[in-house]
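== Sequence entry ==
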Amino acid sequence: MRYANANDIFPKNVLALIQEYTDGEYIYIPKKAERRKSWGDNTNSKTEIRQRNIEIFKKYKTGRKTAELACEYFLSEKSIQRIVTLGRKA
């Protein structure tokens, strides 16, 4: 995200109105709801994590301990337990 000068973006009357509420401060203007993307939409992160979790659950079912899996995947044992619990529900 980059900063833009409000003088270059807004019409003078709109800028004057904004200045009534916040004069000289930095503000964030969020995207419109229909243009927002959820986490992981720009990358394969969701898919990769889903695949990793399936792999962890399969290894757990074959007898691997949560401590071993935590070390192997660089996660906490609590995270492994959550993944196993979600895998059982699926």
Remarks:
- The helical segments are 6-9, 12-21, 45-61, 66-73, 77-89.
